[in-house]
Design a protein that fits this description.
Layout lengths: L1 H10 L4 H22 L7 H14 L10 H37 L11 E4 L3 H13 L5 E5 L11 E5 L5 H6 L7 E4 L8 H18 L4 E6 L15 E4 H14 L3 H9 L6 E5 L8 H11 L2 E5 L19 E5 L1 H11 L1
Parallel strand pairs: 1-2, 1-4, 2-3, 4-5, 5-6
Antiparallel strand pairs: 7-9, 8-9
Helix pairs in contact: 1-4, 2-3, 2-4, 3-4
Membrane topology: Multi-pass membrane protein
Keywords: Ion channel, Ion transport, Membrane, Transmembrane, Transmembrane helix, Transport
Protein name: Voltage-gated potassium channel
């Protein structure tokens, strides 16, 4: 057995491709030799291949074995060399899977997909956002960028990239140019709003230069800092602290209103807020309102204008961004009708 151990020790330092090549040479060489030397025992090449594979993986079942001296020499060769090479091959395959999982967990693998959503900055807010994305669309992946040494969450369709979001190679690894959108969350470890928003500004500047066409959403700690982002293109700003405070005030004056807000912004259950394209037959807001109402949906806004119910006679502009409230089933039904 010391020969096998010696072979394994030497083979561990050999490249994977050479081990694969050597294993195939041993297996198919022994298969050819066994079939040519003992055609009575191994009536087909597959019978010989079966015997070789059983021998190198289990030292044989004993149901089929060579009878001639030459055939048994081939068997001895397999005992000594075949088991060693195939054992090393299996070990390297297992090691490759382990190395892949380890690199994935450490955020060192590049994401190759497209249409995904990139989340920059890990926090409890980012975790809730990732879960909401997965619940909203079963086909969209999430890529998290953070400086953590290991993935903060292990879920299918969530990928982790370890690195600084202000560096191009990190954004390249996250395949940001092929992303659907990017969410930049404020760093919870920074208590000073000015420093925190300054860090977000640096990240957004890098994102804009690297992938100018990606939809960008940024969390801002202080509304006064929005003007500092005027030279970069940010699609939307989220004022997290102010939003929570305003929601708390509304709840204080109107009990239960927070549940209405949560219902609208979460897609995990019930009615949700959706964007719907303008139908060619809709000329006025009134026509769109009544057409959607008959389908079980309620038209509520055009962009950030919520006074549609007072403008039903007005024509819908070509660049309208119509929003409605309905359940997922109705939404998908209306999308199919719009095609």
């Amino acid at each position: 057995m010391w020969i096998i151990r010696l072979i394994i020790q030497k083979a561990l330092g050999i490249s994977n491709w050479l081990i694969i090549f050597a294993s195939f040479v041993v297996v198919f060489g022994a298969t050819s030799a066994a079939y040519l030397l003992e055609p009575e025992t191994f009536k087909t090449p597959f019978d010989a291949f079966w015997w070789v594979m059983v021998t190198v993986t289990t030292v044989g079942y004993g149901d089929v074995y060579p009878h001639s001296i030459a055939g048994r020499i081939v068997g001895i060769f397999l005992f000594v060399f075949g088991i060693g090479f195939v054992g090393v091959l299996i070990g390297k395959i297992v090691d490759s899977f382990s190395a892949f999982n380890r690199r994935r967990e450490e955020g060192k693998l590049a994401y190759k997909g497209r249409g995904h959503i990139v989340i920059i900055g890990w926090s409890k807010k980012a975790e809730h956002a990732a879960e909401e994305i997965l619940a909203s669309n079963a086909k969209v992946d999430v890529v998290i960028i953070d400086t953590l040494e290991r993935a903060p969450i292990a879920k299918e369709r969530i990928h982790f990239v370890s690195g600084e979001a202000s560096e191009d190679n990190t954004l390249e690894q996250a395949n940001l140019k092929k992303a659907k959108s990017v969410l930049v969350f404020a760093d919870d470890n920074i208590s000073e709003p000015q420093i925190c928003d300054g860090k977000s500004l640096i990240i957004v500047t890098t994102v804009e230069q690297f992938a100018p066409g990606v939809h960008t959403v940024v969390e801002i700690m202080d509304e006064r800092h929005i003007k500092n982002f005027h030279f970069v293109h940010v699609n939307e700003f989220i004022l997290m602290n102010q939003t929570i405070s305003r929601l708390a005030v509304r709840s204080a004056f109107m009990a239960g209103v927070s549940e209405v807000y949560q219902q609208l912004i979460s897609r995990k259950k019930g009615e949700n807020l959706y964007r719907i394209p303008k139908h060619p037959h809709w000329n006025t807001y009134g026509e769109a309102f009544h057409a959607l109402l008959e389908q079980g949906a309620t038209l509520v806004a055009d962009g950030n204008e919520l006074d549609i119910n007072r403008r039903l006679q007005e024509e819908i502009p070509d660049n309208a961004e119509l929003y409605m409230i309905c359940d997922p089933k109705t939404y998908h039904k209306l999308l199919e009708q719009a095609k």
